[in-house]
Amino acid sequence: MLRLRKILLLKWPYIILFLTSCLFVIFYYKTNLYSKYQGTEKEVTGIIQEISFDGSYLAMTIKGKEKIMTSYYAKTEEELMLLKKELSLGDTILLKGAFITPNTTKNFNSFSYQKYLKQKKIFYCMQVESITRIKKN
Length: 137
Known about the structure:
The chain is built from four helices and five strands, in the order H-H-E-E-E-H-E-H-E. The longest helix is centred in the N-terminal third of the chain and has 19 residues, at 12-30. The protein has helices spanning 2-9, 12-30, 77-86, 113-119; strands spanning 43-54, 57-63, 67-73, 92-100, 122-135. By secondary structure, it is α+β, with helices and mostly antiparallel strands.
């Protein structure tokens, strides 16, 4: 009991614990600051993590090599109904389209969508031309 009390009264174990936790936090937030995509790809395969419909607009977050925000506009009402019926979370899909880098802010100290996505480790948005489901969840 006396030995445990002496150990708990020492300052160096707390200092070492504090320093290692600080190093862990720094390495955790500084890793993965660059995209695994080149930005010139035309096809991407990934798993749907988030999906939302707003009128004829379909927004998804997919996980391929990394997370990508996608946007797609349905051309007809039938296509929209088919997408709502077919796509669900966890489905593996093939997207064809073009990568777009998010816009930076033009005004000082205003909201930056690019920084917001970078904090979520999303480096590219994709304007989708066609969606093909490869595997159902």
